Amino acid sequence: MGALIRSYKFKVFMVVISGIILEIAAVTFFMLKDRLLLFPVVLMVLLCAFILVILLDLKYITLGYLLFVPIIIYILENQFVAVQNLGSRLIYVENAFLALLFIMNVFLLKRKKEIKGILPETVIIIMLCIGNLITYFQFQYEFKVYLLSTNFYLRYFVISLIIYFSKIDYEVFIKILKLFSIFIISNTVICILQFIFGDPFLSPFVGGYFYSFRNDLIRCIGVFPWPTELGAFSGLFFIIYYFSGKHLKYNFFYLISFFCILNILLSQSRLALLLVIIILFIDNIKKILKLMRYSLILVLIYVFINFGMGININEYIINSIEEYSMPEKAPRIYYVIHGIDIFRDHPFFGIGFDRYGTQWINELENYHLFNKYGIKQFERLSTTDSFIAKILPEFGVFGTILLIVFYIILLMKSIRIMKIDQRYKTFFYLLVYYIFYLFNSAHVLFNLNMGPVFWIIAGLVIKYYSVLYKKNIFRIPMESEEVSEKVK
Which of 268, 344, 361, 437 is the Cys-Cys partner for 354 at CB 3.0 to 4.6 Å? Predict the structure, then answer.
């Protein structure tokens, strides 16, 4: 009996059964109206979690959950927009699982002594929460709004804590990436079908949004509700797969990175394509011929897809400039301008997390702030469409400086690590990618689409920096053989 339980086939069988139970529990949870019935559903989920923890290594479960589940929740939330309070239900479920993972990785693994390595970042996050608490007492808005907005930001930092305290390392990260490639491939197939056949393959995924066209061409969305999100997501994973494949000399990862580029092109995401070219330029700055070849291929493919059907390129460029520079055509510019007006009145601590740049918080407050400053309500979008538009009015000088310091710490740590271990070059380029996307998305660091990956990377950077620091590697000359030995 013991041999059967330890066998690989039995473990696979139990994992599949657990997955089926979890899926049934999830569907039941979405449809339930009777709160009493939630109890057996929660028990089913906990039973599956218990089985998975016993059968599989905790570090694989942890990283697999943090990478897969937020994306799945994000897609479901947009697909089932008609289900009342679905978003808040999903947040509660996610919080419960994050708490469970935190407890298992910190207390069960007895890693509480490791807190010193992540102390500076933890202090910054605590100070941000204190700043938000000050705005609550200052403006006396609903306590529910304070709790929801604080939780919205704090739960993402918990992801970094979980990664830091876990036993996840670069090898685990690569193994989970191999599994995640199934999602990338599936998404690419759906994009191609959407590009060829249109509506039959778009309508199942568009959710509460609408079809987007650019110069009379449909913008593909894959399984995401909006093409910009597909482009941002694909650019992010292009960097991960391309540079991981480059370091490991693993052709399969190169293939997945090509699929990511294809998704960017089919979504017609200009910023994602531009950032990919910039990062390839930075990486190949000393190899100009190779750089020109990469950039030329990308641009030619993009031109073929967008302009091969007789579209005027000059008109396309002019429309792009207007979209990013004219307030009446670019929501992000409009909300930046009005955000500065709010910041002038509340410069020190701002007005509180999400009270300006997020639709659901404004709805809870009956658009009080928008009415006060004569700002038009969100129409096509549910945010300000730019983190830059909301950072000053919501965080004030105090919070803005803290966020900048937090990001600088991550960048500096990633640079120092990259000089010693080239595997972590991937993480440096990801941090650069996120910086640019802050201009093009309101919640790039704090949403279920791209947010979890950022905080996973942040946790890995902080974790590995702490490991190298304890080994005194930063005090050893870079060319020394002792560095190579200690890194291993």
Answer: 361
